[in-house]
Amino acid sequence: MTPQTPTGHTAPLIVDFFHDVVCGWCYVMSPRLRQVAAELDIAVRHRSFVLQDSRERIMEAFGTMEKAKTEILGHWEACAKQDDEQRIDIEGMRAESFEYPSGLAGALACQAAHIIGGDAAHWDYFDAVQNAHLSQHRNIGNPSVLLDIAVDLGFARDVFASRMNSEAADSRVQADRDEARKLGIRSIPTLIVGPDLDRLQTMPAPALKARLQAVMQNA
């Protein structure tokens, strides 16, 4: 039976979207999920999943920062082939001199947006940071860049900076990471859906819509 709200209306399906600002597959998936969520009246909750939270973790994963950038841009090539709008600028990022950033600063900034404006603000900010990273090849490991993006979206710079550097933002990031570990999530994007905690990953919008409709019908 589909759950009902106190007024008798059908409650929307809730999807938990685990993502990282530096994840190319998340960039591919986010607009598809936006489209399907609007069509099906689905509520999306945003969860931070930081692949590597520091330069040291990147070094552990790839050996050197140079190897990290080379291998990650190889992943970008696969993502670019699947991106519906061909937005990913691989050569632009390859030409940049800064080291490939970890996703932690971006996750904290996304949680700052969430504290200020909830899931909708989180999503808008997440998409803007991903665009800056994958399409504009900006250094989203730089807090000033993250604040510039926030201002472009209409946030007050000083308020956003305060939230981004707060214990509340850090706690939200850590809580999401703890939840991901509890669920055994190892790759992103991952969508956790419905009472059976179905797991969906990158797929075309029509397939995503069909899968979510099936969950809604069986809920």
State the main characteristics.
alpha+beta, Glutaredoxin, 59% helix, globular, disordered N terminus, oxidoreductase, signal
Task: Describe this entry's structure for a reader.
Keywords: Disulfide bond, Isomerase, Oxidoreductase, Redox-active center, Signal. InterPro entries: DSBA-like_thioredoxin_dom, Thioredoxin-like_sf. Residues 15-195 form the DSBA-like thioredoxin domain. GO terms for molecular function: isomerase activity; oxidoreductase activity. This protein is α+β, with helices and mostly antiparallel strands and 219 residues long. It has a single domain (14-218), classed as Glutaredoxin (3-Layer(aba) Sandwich). 59% of the residues lie in helices and 9% in strands. The protein has 9 helices and 4 strands. It has helices at residues 24-40, 55-62, 65-82, 90-95, 104-135, 143-152, 157-164, 167-183, 205-218; strands at 14-19, 43-48, 190-193, 198-200. Strands 2-1-3-4 form a 4-stranded mixed sheet, sandwiched between helices. Strand 3 (190-193) and strand 4 (198-200) form a beta hairpin. It is globular. Residues 1-9 have low confidence and may be disordered.
